[in-house]
Amino acid sequence: FTKEKIPKNLDAIIIGSGIGGMTAAATMAKAGKRVLVLEQHDVAGGCCHTFTEKGFEFDVGLHYFGQLHENGLLKVAMDQITEGQLEFVELPQHFDSIVIDDSSKRRDYALLSGRTEMEQNLKKYFPDDAKAVEEFFKLMKITATRIHYLAILKLIPQWFALFLLKSGIADFCSSIFRLSGSNATEMNNRLTNNKDLHVIFSYFFYGVPPKDSSFMINALMLHHFKRGAYYPKGGASEIPFHITKVIQKYGGSVLVRAPVSQILVDTKGTAYGVTVKKGDEHVEIRAPVIISNCGIFNTFQKLLPPEIQVKPEVQSRLDMMRPGKASFLLFSGFDATQEELDIVPTSIWLFKSNDMDAMMDEFFSMSKDEAPENVPMVLITFPSAKDPTSQIRHPGKSCMTILTMVNYEWFEEWKDTRVRKRGDDYFSYKMRFASYIFDWACKHFPKLRDKLVFQEAATPLTNMHYLSCNRGAIYSSDHNLDRFYAEAMARNRCDTPVKNLYLSGQDIFSCGIAGALHGGLLCASTVLSYPVYIDLLFIKKKLKWKKAREAAKLAKQKQQ
């Protein structure tokens, strides 16, 4: 970032280069708007960026994602914002392993992708609960095929959305409006009393126990991988790299080392620009539209002027959300190949118990000193095993990321210290977490320990420094049940009480890469006053027709 690099005659400024902000920017750029993306870090991408240490490359937040099968809506959207330049590798059909490591007996469950294979495989594991599995998949299909109704609530006038909900018309049209506000634990209990199966129905942990989470969101996360799991060829940083090229192609710009210090609001309550801190100077940049992709809490509590923050309408909007649980990540590098370590592209989800509600309640209620040696769940993933270019770019090296959820309060005493200079007490404390979860991983992959040559732990404070995550929550605001009631979803929109200020990213719809991307599409649709999904669906239909014509032509040639 320098003053000279700011494009002239801007139509929109986007704060934050996470996938939500980049999607909104690229979509608007392709619609003829001149956009500027400002990123406080020294590399673009948010949770999609990578970092390299000691010759090891680590993905920060992207572990894999789904719905990228041919002609899928997410694939069409991704191809549009990257103009088809991003390549994906389809991971093995066995994309996830769920391991319940409790005191009785270890149980391993393989999750398979496939239209029918996912359901059939679970029936093999749970023959006595075949009907429960069938019913779950029926409900999962409803959530997947009707989720767009909830997106529509965010695009139509709010008064009309609330009328449809309060009048009962929405419920008459689809059960999705009731499912969105259904408690996951209660729904799971209705289906079966098998606790292991409960874990499988809700294993994607994001800091909220199933009793406080939406059944719809948990079902959507599993459905997301039904048609396959994918990984970007070349690593996660390929995503912002190619989106940046598209933004630049259409006259926009993405600038890093550009920390926004304030959103400028005039006396009439209209946003008209931002200030960027450059050394001791605060550089003012103006545009008729400001889009914040740095989360509702950062936006409303840190970037808005104090006199705007206290307005009742701003506080009312904030009160709809709660800060999310923080994340703790451990990055490990090994001087060995995938074959030498016996590691796999499959992601491993480890749980200490099959009672997720009790397990999470107990852990998050622990004291700061108790917590490190009692982590009850982790995700283990090997980015180097997922990406076929890894051994070309980093020969003879492998890497592992372990993720778990923690309380921000456990690390809060060091919040005013500087990164990499937080003191011996901080280092010792975070390494207690690191040692415990690494030892747990070594029980499942015993060859890791002898080949370990690099290790770095990222605490909530690390996430705050590099990713500007509020209280270290990489999944942004809390995904509690209250947020997903249909009326709450209708009110949680991209436009804000501050005129010309809009929100994008995970806080708009849901967490994860796909959730943030849809947050970007919804934001672009709101700003442009045009539902870009119509164009995406039209492109999807054209591709389907093209494929049908090619198949018919091939069949005709075979007959001849």
TrEMBL record:
> From the record, what ranges are coiled-coil?
none
Q: What is this protein called?
A: Amine oxidase domain-containing protein
What keywords appear on the UniProt entry? Answer: FAD, Flavoprotein, Membrane, NAD, NADP, Signal, Transmembrane, Transmembrane helix
Span of domain Amine oxidase: 19-528
* InterPro entries listed in its UniProt record: Amino_oxidase (IPR002937), FAD/NAD-bd_sf (IPR036188), Retinol_saturase (IPR052206)
**Which SUPFAM superfamilies is this protein grouped with?**
FAD/NAD(P)-binding domain (SSF51905)
Bilayer-spanning residue ranges: 516-539
The record's comment on protein family reads: Belongs to the carotenoid/retinoid oxidoreductase family. CrtISO subfamily.
Name the source's superkingdom.
Eukaryota
